[in-house]
Amino acid sequence: MSTQPKETVLAIVALGHGKVAGGGAPVFIVEDKEQLEKVSLYLSRVLNGAIHDLENGVYIIVGH
Amino acid sequence: MEQYQASILVGVTVGFLARLYLLKVDYRQYPSYPHGYVTHISFGFIAAAIGAVAIPAIMKPDFTAVTFLALAATQFREVRRMERETLGKLDESELVPRGNDYIEGIARVFEARNYLVMAVAMVSSLVTYLVDWPYGVAAGVIAQIIAIKLMSGEVVGDIAEVIPSQPVFNGALLTVGGIVIMNIGLPEHREKVLKEGLSALIKPKDDNARATLDNLGQRQAILHVAAALLGSKREIGEWEFAPLIRKDINTGVLAIFLLPIEPDMECLIEAINRVPVLESSKRRPLASRVGRQAAD
Q1: To 10 degrees, what angle do helices B2-24 and B34-59 make?
Q2: Which residues of B touch A54 (CB under 8 A)?
Q3: Rounded distance, CA B34 to CA B278, Å?
């Protein structure tokens, strides 16, 4: 088990504009909370990542 | 001549039975593939044979024959390498791996067992040579009991107290006993985790235990055993359901979280209690003066 960080943000799902800017990961803007959860779930399954909630309407998909 | 024969025969038989017995008591660590059994039993037989002929060789007297004991040591180092490689390879396809430290511990035990078998065979063949075969068998059994006592190491239950706990969400953060385990994004995952998850706190009894439990290999071993015995709903791509273990940096208490197939708290505690303390992760800061002073 390594203690070195190897987490990478694979994708960002944001509710509305203005919360996320730039960065290396693709950003998916969605309209409502239902979409937010659905898109996050799909992305996490496709990208083999975990969904983390930043609790400001932004979910990030992180590869561990 | 007949004395030699009896001596060798008793030594080989008792030593071989000793190896069989050690295989049986080892159900937890054994990877249970049939060819593994064959390999270990044959190695055990060779070890018993080498141990058994050592005494007659000296008595004959044929002192140079004893040098092949050295050869045996090389052979049994192979056992360790073989076990390490096999388990390491198998570990790659485990959803909750054993971890290198645990594998190294298991491999070392397998190597040491052959030396034990050799010693048991030697003791019983010596006693058979000096007295008679029933005494030889008895001496072998006693040697075996002593060996098992000496070889049985500590378990987590000896160095720490395991107490049941409830997973609680603080926003998106899953916490157990106030220790943050991970951030779970989706509400439906949180519900599942709350409903089906099991968690416990592992409180080290002293500073030695705390330092030992700090070790990542030791923690991985705890996770592996817990997941192996209770099952885990961990699946590829579903990181939310991965069993995790995290430490409270201020107190050294470990929090373990697991989404088991069989949600039984008593079994979880029993499973954690029985995880062996790995030789490689054992730390004893209290054994030194500086460590004791720092601990007040």
Answers
A1: 150
A2: 172
A3: 26
CA of A10: how far to CAs of A46, B121, B242, in Å?
A: 11, 60, 19
Number of domains making up chain B:
2
Q: Which residues of B touch A53 (CB under 8 A)?
A: 171-172, 183-186
Which of B183, B192, B259 best tests the A interface by mutation, with the highest count of A CBs <10 A?
Answer: B183
Question: Cβ contact (<8 Å) for A48 and B184?
Answer: no
Interface predicted TM-score of the whole assembly (ipTM), two decimals: 0.83
Q: Give the domain-ending residue among B106, B122, B150.
A: B150
CB atoms within 10 A of CB B121: 33
Stretch B265-286: mean pLDDT, rounded? 90
pLDDT digits (tens, 9 = 90+) for B196-255: 999 999 999 999 999 999 999 999 999 999 998 888 888 887 888 899 999 999 999 999
Range of the domain at B42: 2-150
Tell me which residue of B284, B281, B285 sits closest to B216, measured CA to CA: B281
Work out the minimum CA distance from A23 to partner chain B, whole angstroms. Answer: 20
B137 and B238 part of one domain: no
Cα–Cα distance for residue pair B29/B151, rounded to 1 Å: 14
- Residue in B172, B188, B220 nearest the CB of A53: B172
Amino acid at B228: A
B294 pLDDT above the threshold of 90: no
Do B182 and B88 fall into the same domain? no
Are B144 and B53 part of one and the same domain? yes
Count other Cβ atoms within 10 Å, centred on residue B158. 11
Of the candidates B132, B150, B168, which is a domain's last residue? B150
Same domain, B57 and B168: no
